[in-house]
Write a structure and sequence with these properties.
mainly alpha, 6 helices, globular
Length: about 100
C-alpha cells in the first residue's frame, strides 16, 4: 500500500526548493504532487496542485508532465470528483 500523504509532503518540500527557472521540473513534480493527492482521495488538493502547473506542462512538460496531468484528471473523474472536470477543462483549453 502506498503512503500518498507522505509522498505529497515530500513533494511539497521539494517543490519549495525549486527556483522558478526550473519550469520543466516544477511541471513534473507539480503533476506528481497532484497525482499523490488524487490517489489519496484529496480531490481539492489535487486540483490545487495541478492548476498552477498546467501552463508549464503544456509549454515545456510534454509529454511527461502533460500526460501525468491527464492521468490525474482521469483519476478524479473516476472518483466522481467535480475537480476532475475542472482539470480536464483546463487541459482541454491547451490541447
Amino acid at each position: 500500500m502506498k503512503n500518498w500523504t507522505s509522498s505529497a509532503d515530500n513533494l511539497v518540500m521539494g517543490l519549495g526548493g525549486l527556483a522558478p527557472a526550473f519550469q520543466r521540473d516544477r511541471a513534473w513534480y507539480g503533476s506528481r504532487l497532484a497525482h499523490a493527492y488524487a490517489a489519496g482521495g484529496e480531490a481539492e488538493a489535487a486540483l490545487g496542485a495541478a492548476l498552477p502547473v498546467v501552463l508549464d506542462a503544456s509549454e515545456v512538460g510534454r509529454p511527461h508532465a502533460w500526460q501525468e496531468l491527464h492521468k490525474v484528471a482521469g483519476m478524479l473523474l473516476r472518483q466522481r470528483a467535480p475537480q476532475g472536470r475542472m482539470l480536464y477543462d483546463a487541459l482541454a483549453t491547451l490541447d
